[in-house]
Amino acid sequence: MNPDKDKGSAEDIAGRPLKVAELVDYQEGAVVSRTLVDKRTGTVTLFAFDEGQGLSEHTAPFDAVVNVIEGEAEIVICGEAMMVSGGEMVIMPAGEPHSLSAATPFKMMLTMIRS
């Protein structure tokens, strides 16, 4: 089941102004994602995390930029924890272990550049 099916595909939303926070909805006890751009050179994905949800520690082969849309989360990079909130961004370096945990319901846009 796709909770965002009525919000249009990536092609349907291209070329017009959008309210980013409205493109992905929270789901109780879950992490919801929606890919907006998926190209060989990179991806743009929106996430909505319910409070207490997160991503366990992992690494990625490419740099990734987290743009916080709303809410608060703890992001840990190489063992260093930081709190982030709406309007802030963090660059997660390639190859460095990182994790994320939502302190409140939390939305972010993740941009990964594959080069």
Automatic annotation (TrEMBL):
InterPro entries: Cupin_2, RmlC-like_jellyroll, RmlC_Cupin_sf. It comes from the Archaea. This is Cupin domain-containing protein. Residues 47-110 form the Cupin type-2 domain. PANTHER family: SLR8022 PROTEIN. It holds the Pfam family Cupin_2. CDD domains: cupin_HP0902-like. It comes from Candidatus Methanocrinis alkalitolerans.
